[in-house]
């Protein structure tokens, strides 16, 4: 029997669904997930010893490719000095200074261990700072799995949301207003009605959790203006986009200054580091300076911080993002051409090192468009590609990622495989 299948059967007896995060279970595409044994550069090897070109990149963090030599050396060096102290270290100052230099809106930074924590803490801070309860989020955006953010839109938009997970009290999500992405008019209506009760608006400026959907500049401009006018805080969730779409994140591309920024993924280089940061007067509300409580046993862990810092050093090499963007564009152009040759309805988009592939005639503008993708055909294409040694995200709702080790020959091999796969699913 296939060793991946064997491990999957065994895993399901002790781990719900056999996985520690749901998308890994391949539920929407079927089949046994690949159990990964090791990875290097753009490649991963599974339990059968089969190699894959990896376009998931640990869902974003592995921007330098897997097991970058300098990052591994920095991690080893940190481990030798101690795995965790639960006390202040100089390395935490260094990474906070570096983050502030690259993302100036983050005048002060607090490190946490996951994007979920960053989102939960950012919301608490916005509520604590403004003294208001209501929050605005957008359909299709994901900000981690804390209770108040696990919300789906009510039957009519502009109604407060129902929990989208069991175990979340309706009394928690009743303060969360869910609006359509890329719909500035709806945002205006929401502020006209609830303006003095809204603590914050939280957004992914380039959404990556409903596949890739770019915000329009008008949408971002409108939310910045409305937040400023009504005294609400704008939280830009850059957990995925930070150091991924550009060195300064999506906020640098849109020219918007958030009140609070969330980071994750790339800042840890594959280890559990995330962060939230803001203007000093906002961050001074966080404990121990202010009344907004927030803490973590492993926050700022020295090994994780060393891994993140070694990653942040390398992405600042001149030309890094031009190169990364060029490789990502070559991939999406190659896939689009391969699909066209086979006559499969398909399009693609990318921003920096992040891409979206859509089994649709045109690029989606929001969640409703993404829902129209041909999921069955995607599932067949996904499995063909996997067989051919290319590992894409196992869902039409995820963005894809390219690393700096995805060189021309790696992309060419992928496009070659895609030609075969598209022909099979045409
Ligand atoms: N925000 C965004 C935009 C994300 O993409 C994610 C994770 N995919 C999160 C928050 C949550 O991060 P984590 O999985 O580290 O909790």
From TrEMBL:
The membrane spanning regions, by residue number, are none
Question: Is this entry keyworded Cytoplasm?
Answer: yes
Q: Name one Pfam family in it.
A: Aminotran_3
The biological processes this protein is annotated with in GO are: protoporphyrinogen IX biosynthetic process
| Main subcellular location | cytoplasm
State which pathway it belongs to: Porphyrin-containing compound metabolism; protoporphyrin-IX biosynthesis; 5-aminolevulinate from L-glutamyl-tRNA(Glu): step 2/2
Subcellular localization(s) per the UniProt record: Cytoplasm
- The EC number of this protein is 5.4.3.8
UniProt modified residues of type N6-(pyridoxal phosphate)lysine? 265
Looking at the keywords, is DNA damage present?
no
Q: Which UniProt keywords apply?
A: Cytoplasm, Isomerase, Porphyrin biosynthesis, Pyridoxal phosphate
Enzymatic reactions: (S)-4-amino-5-oxopentanoate = 5-aminolevulinate
Q: Name one GO molecular function term.
A: transaminase activity
InterPro entries from the entry?
Answer: 4pyrrol_synth_GluAld_NH2Trfase, Aminotrans_3, Aminotrans_3_PPA_site, PyrdxlP-dep_Trfase, PyrdxlP-dep_Trfase_major, PyrdxlP-dep_Trfase_small
For this UniProt entry, what's an example GO CC term?
Answer: cytoplasm
Domain of life where this protein originates: Bacteria
Q: Which cofactor does it need?
A: pyridoxal 5'-phosphate
Subunit and partners: Homodimer.
**Family the UniProt entry places it in:** Belongs to the class-III pyridoxal-phosphate-dependent aminotransferase family. HemL subfamily.
State the protein's name. Answer: Glutamate-1-semialdehyde 2,1-aminomutase
């Amino acid at each position: 029997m296939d060793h991946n299948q064997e491990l999957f059967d065994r895993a399901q007896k002790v781990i719900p669904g056999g996985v520690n995060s749901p998308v890994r279970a391949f539920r929407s595409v079927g089949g046994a997930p690949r159990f990964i044994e090791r990875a290097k550069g753009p490649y991963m090897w599974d339990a059968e010893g089969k190699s894959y070109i990896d376009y998931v990149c640990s869902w974003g963090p592995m921007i330098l490719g897997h097991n970058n030599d300098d990052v591994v050396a920095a991690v080893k060096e940190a481990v030798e000095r101690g795995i965790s102290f639960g006390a202040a270290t100089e390395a935490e100052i260094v990474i906070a200074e570096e983050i502030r230099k690259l993302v100036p809106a983050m005048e002060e930074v607090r490190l946490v261990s996951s994007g979920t924590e960053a989102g939960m803490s950012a919301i608490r801070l916005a509520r604590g700072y403004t003294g208001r309860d209501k929050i605005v989020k957008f359909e299709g955006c994901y900000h981690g799995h804390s209770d108040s953010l696990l919300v789906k839109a009510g039957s009519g938009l502009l109604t407060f949301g129902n929990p989208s997970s069991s175990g979340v009290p309706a009394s928690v999500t009743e303060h969360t207003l869910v609006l359509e992405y890329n719909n500035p008019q709806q945002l205006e209506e929401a502020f006209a009605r609830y303006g003095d009760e809204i603590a914050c608006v939280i957004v992914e400026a380039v959404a990556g959790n409903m596949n890739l959907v770019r915000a329009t500049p008008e949408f971002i401009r409108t939310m910045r203006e409305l937040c400023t006018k009504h005294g609400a805080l704008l939280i830009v969730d850059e957990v995925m986009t930070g150091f991924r779409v550009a060195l300064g994140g999506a906020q640098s591309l849109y020219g918007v200054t958030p009140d609070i920024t969330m980071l994750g993924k790339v800042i840890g280089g594959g280890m559990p580091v995330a962060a939230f940061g803001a203007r000093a007067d906002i961050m001074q509300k966080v404990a121990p300076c202010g009344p907004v409580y927030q803490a973590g046993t492993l926050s700022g862990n020295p090994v994780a911080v060393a891994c993140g810092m070694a990653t942040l050093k390398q992405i600042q090499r001149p030309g890094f993002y031009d190169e990364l963007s060029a490789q990502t564009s070559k991939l999406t152009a190659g896939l689009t051409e391969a699909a066209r040759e086979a006559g499969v309805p398909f399009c693609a988009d990318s921003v920096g090192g992040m891409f979206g592939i859509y089994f649709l005639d045109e690029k989606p503008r929001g969640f409703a468009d993404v829902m129209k993708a041909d999921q069955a055909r995607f599932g067949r294409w996904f499995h063909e590609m996997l067989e051919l040694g290319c590992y894409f995200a196992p869902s039409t709702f995820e963005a894809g990622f390219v690393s700096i080790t995805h060189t021309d020959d790696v992309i060419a091999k992928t496009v070659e495989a895609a030609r075969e796969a598209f022909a099979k699913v045409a």
